[in-house]
Amino acid sequence: MKNISINLLLLLFILNACKQADTKKAGLTEADAKKVEEMVNNAGGEGCFIPYQAKACELLPVETIAKILGVAVQEVELEDKMKFLHGMGKDKDKPYKGSGFATCEYAWKDQSGKKIKKIVMEQEFETPMTYLINVGRFTPVKDLAAFRFNYRTLTQQEKDEIAKEAEKELDKRVAEGKNTKEQAGAAKDMASAFMKGREVIEVAGLGEAAVCIYTKLTGNAAELVVYLNKNHFTVTVDMDTYSKAQNLEIAKKIALEVLKKCE
Question: Do the Cβ atoms of 86 and 65 come closer than 8 Å?
């Protein structure tokens, strides 16, 4: 099974896991940088929210997010999570339109000082309560059928194929000396945890179609993906102490604010 979703997952698994496994090595390899730059150069498309690929944090002001959360504006911080991409994709004969990876992160930290127990990769640890919201990944999609195909509950066979392809790619990178066995092992564990318990549910009343994705790896975090006019965007809400349903409700409110750009 070959499609853009699988390739994207593989890239994220490999780069994120390798980055976490060896923080001393900063940046991307030359081959990785070239691959990312090609994606950036090919990004773009038309649509009411596509222009925000290169300026994700200009789409929704902090005031809007703070109002939805019911907290003071000064307690919410925002950060362009893919800022490094904005210096790429500047081909002379092709205007830069931004990247489908671009997201803006809004963070609200609990002021009580309380800590919460979390289980990540089957390991439990304590961490201060943090509330994160990501808005972005404004990406062209061929049509509604393609959207529904990419965002659906996978069969066990498809999960096995993705795992096999990811393992093959990781083993290749180890053989080429691009990553260590330890880094590849961390990436494989992350991929396995991500696929376990992956649930996709349809969400009514947003755009032409919308789904919410939950995974074992991300716990109660809600990843809401909305399709409209051959484009889609994603709102991810991960509020510590919130249930899946509560996270989804916040994501829906934020998605409605994004859709106002299309009115």
Answer: no
Q: Are residues 65 and 148 in the same domain?
A: yes
**Residue 63 neighbours by CB distance under 10 Å:** 10
Number of structural domains in the chain: 2
Q: Are residues 131 and 244 in the same domain?
A: yes
- 3-state SS string over 158-206? HHHHHHHHHHHHHHHHHHCCCCCHHHHHHHHHHHHHHHCCCEEEECCCC
What are the pLDDT digits (tens) for 36-80?
A: 555 544 444 556 777 787 788 888 999 999 999 988 898 898 888
Across the range 200-220, mean pLDDT stands at 89
Note whether 133 and 8 are same-domain residues: no
Do 128 and 217 lie in a common domain? Answer: yes
β-partners of residue 209 are: 227
Same domain, 36 and 55: no
Mutual orientation of helices 62-69 and 244-259 as an angle, nearest 10°? Answer: 140
Q: How far is Cα 13 from Cα 165, in angstroms, rounded to an integer?
A: 12
pTM of the predicted structure, to 2 decimals:
0.72
Scan for tokens 């090609």, then name that residue: 38
243 and 175: one domain? no
My answer on whether 217 and 146 are in the same domain is: yes
C-alpha closest to that of 160 among 186, 191, 199: 191
Could you tell me if 178 and 239 lie in one domain? no
Among candidate residues 87, 60, 155, 118, the one with its CA nearest the CA of residue 240: 118
Above 70 in pLDDT, residue 194? no
Structural domain that includes position 19: 1-41+154-195
Q: Rounded to the nearest 10 degrees, how much is the dihedral formed by the CA atoms of 222, 54, 105, 139?
A: 10
Select the more confidently predicted residue: 56 or 187. Answer: 56
Distance CA 105, CA 225 (A): 16
